[in-house]
Amino acid sequence: MSHSPVQIIARGSRVAAETAAEAIDADPMLEGATYSILEEDEDRDVWRIDAFPTTEEESEGLQARLAEHPGVTVVVETLADADWLAMSLSGLPPVRAGRFFVYGAHDQGRVPPNTVNLKIDAGAAFGTGHHGTTVGCLLAFDDLLKRESFERVLDVGAGTGVLAIAAARTGSRVAIGTDIDEPSVRISNENAKLNQADARFVHASGLNDAKVRGHGPYDLVFANILAPPLVALSQDIKLALKLGGVAILSGLLRTQERRVTAAYLSRGFVLERRYRRDAWSALVLRRVG
Ligand SMILES: C[S@@+](CC[C@H](N)C(=O)[O-])C[C@H]1O[C@@H](n2cnc3c(N)ncnc32)[C@H](O)[C@@H]1O
Questions:
Q1: Residue 35's domain spans which residues?
Q2: 157 marked ligand binding residue
Q3: 35 & 175 share domain
Q4: Between the chain's N and C termini, which has fewer beta carbons within 10 Å?
Q5: Are 79 and 139 in the same domain?
Q6: Residue 47 sits in a domain of what CATH number?
Q7: Which residues make up the binding site for S-adenosyl-L-methionine (predicted)?
């Protein structure tokens, strides 16, 4: 059956949206369906599911599951452009995570006055703020900033540079990011300029590059990569941090928390907090040994 591209938007309270999202997760026919769940309006408790079906069957399945949850209001919008993925990305709603507001060019006029506003457009790099892992890192950082400040920050796997840019914009004197992907480094440096953030990004794998080591030791290291490299880099991340420094780790699934945490506990970290978003988890670990 031919598929005319649509975006399905469902809004409701947090409980209603999470329950509807769980129903999507539980449906084996929708295993490959892409959707995001975000808080759209904190004060009014409005959460939003955006789903981007790629086939007619998926579209019908998603709408059927959502219709079973009267707590959410569903709107289906037709995407006219053939490049529907790019369109849906450019139409992504802005994301609020604590004090941070991550938005794209199309939201220029809708930026709130009392937030740290980060302009990050969807492009070739990962990290528009919509992924559960990025939101988890920003929420964790926001909570930490209520109690302490971080002069030197490293972002391993910078993507769009959103995390190091967030640090530079909230008072970190040194904000360095690295990525193994060259285009991501270029995009991150462009985003830093765009956001008037004094953050610098270098093309490097892991933390052993002189350009990365030279700015350490760090007060905070972000690493939003995947569970296996997080485990593999545990000693390097420890050595990059000052004693008392914090690692915010994400890119791991809830089911991988134990494995990643164990690697860091054995190296002298304590687990301070955990943030869960969708299937993803972000861990806050402090180096105490
Ligand atoms: C999930 S994205 C995170 C992007 C961004 N930091 C965020 O939180 O939205 C992971 C990024 O890490 C990069 N990456 C993966 N393994 C890496 C490694 N060992 N060293 C540096 N970068 C790595 C990938 O190229 C990708 O851009």
A1: 6-83
A2: yes
A3: no
A4: N
A5: no
A6: 3.30.70.600
A7: 134, 157, 179, 224
| The two three-digit tokens of residue 197, written as one number | 């953030």
Confidence (pTM): 0.74
What would the DSSP string read from start to end of 70-93? TTSEEEEEE--SS-HHHHHHHTPP
Give the Cα separation of 191 and 281 in Å (integer). 26
Contact at 8 Å (CB) between 17 and 48? yes
Instruction: Single out the residue in 16, 51, 83 at which a domain terminates.
Output: 83
**Residues contacting ligand 1 via CB (< 6 Å):** 126-127, 133-134, 137, 155-159, 162-163, 178-181, 184, 205-206, 224-225, 229, 251
Residue 102 lies in a domain: no
Point out the least confidently predicted range of 25-34, 177-186, 275-284.
25-34
Q: How far is the CA of 11 from the centre of ligand 1 (A)?
A: 31
φ/ψ of residue 56, rounded to 5: -65, -40
Question: What tokens appear for 144 in the block?
Answer: 């930490």
Domain count, the chain: 2
Express the helix, strand and coil content of the chain in percent, nearest 5 each.
35, 30, 35
34 is in an annotated binding site: no
Say which residue, 48 or 71, is predicted with more confidence: 71
- Annotated ligand binding at 117? The verdict is no
Q: Identify the three-state secondary structure at position 58.
A: helix
Residue nearest to atom 11 of ligand 1 (CA): 157
Between the CA of 94 and the centroid of ligand 1 the distance, in Å, is 21
Indicate which atom in ligand 1 lies nearest the CA of residue 131: 9
